[in-house]
Amino acid sequence: MSTPFIRNHQYNVIKKQSEFLQNTLRTVADRSVLETVRYRAASIIMEAFLDLTENQQKMLEQITTFETAYDFQRYLSALEPYLESYPLITMKQIQKLFPKNKKLKGPDLSSIDFRHVTYLSWVDVATNKLFIVYPFEGQFIGIEGRITPTHKKGYCLFCNRHQELAFFSVKTKPANASPDNYSAIGQYVCIENHGCNQSITDTEALEKFILSVRK
């Protein structure tokens, strides 16, 4: 039985290095350069994990042996059973995270492949609000804020992908502030969260933002 140990953002690191290696194999003939690139790709993948068993490390290091696009595709497919899914969540749990939104319209959970989700999010078009649910230290954190399309491309805070962005603004209450004293923290993020989840390779910026605005 396969024991999941690869989180979505880590799998994205592996995909990115696979693509880079394939491109290098197509464009570089010098074997010494290729070996250096292979070693570097494996090192970047290892750095994405805090700890690995010997078997897990050997499994991931197989990337240094491949030559063809078919090899890399088979490698990525073989890793899918080891993907660690986003924690099980119900619509009732989501609603509890946003108690002030009595008519909350959540995502269609049945249509989501949670193996490829780092953060769950959706937009309520009627209110121009973006909702994010993120699992952190055994619990779910829910944040919401106004989303404003910029119609410009830039780098998303979460996935660092050059893409069309929206400005995400979240109201926060400073510590020891009066009940009516609110401020707002905003960042530029991808409009399309599926692509963002498919591209995110590090959760540091995402977690820092979420923790800075959590209630």
Can you tag this structure with a few keywords?
215 residues; alpha+beta; Monooxygenase; 2 domains; five-stranded antiparallel sheet; 7 helices; elongated
Overview of the structural elements:
With 215 residues, the chain is of the alpha+beta class. It has 2 domains: 8-82, Monooxygenase (Up-down Bundle); 91-213, no CATH class. The chain has helices at 8-27, 31-47, 54-61, 69-79, 91-97, 193-199, 204-213; strands spanning 120-124, 129-136, 139-155, 162-172, 183-190. A 5-stranded antiparallel beta sheet has the order 1-2-3-4-5. Strand 2 and strand 3 (139-155) form a beta hairpin. Helix 1 packs antiparallel against helix 2 (31-47) and helix 1 packs antiparallel against helix 4 (69-79). It is elongated.
Summed up, what is this model?
With 215 residues, the protein is of the alpha+beta class. It has helices at residues 8-27, 31-47, 54-61, 69-79, 91-97, 193-199, 204-213; strands at 120-124, 129-136, 139-155, 162-172, 183-190.
Question: What is the strand tally?
Answer: 5
Strand arrangement within the widest β-sheet reads: 1-2-3-4-5
Unreliable residue stretches = none
Put simply, the count of helices is 7
Instruction: Please indicate the count of domains.
Output: 2
Strand content: 15-25%
Termini Cα gap? 40 Å
> Describe the biggest sheet?
5 strands, antiparallel
Instruction: Work out the helicity level.
Output: 25-40%
- Helix-strand makeup class: alpha+beta
Envelope shape: elongated
Overall mean pLDDT: 92
Rg, rounded, reads 20 Å
State the order of secondary-structure elements, H for helix, E for strand.
HHHHHEEEEEHH
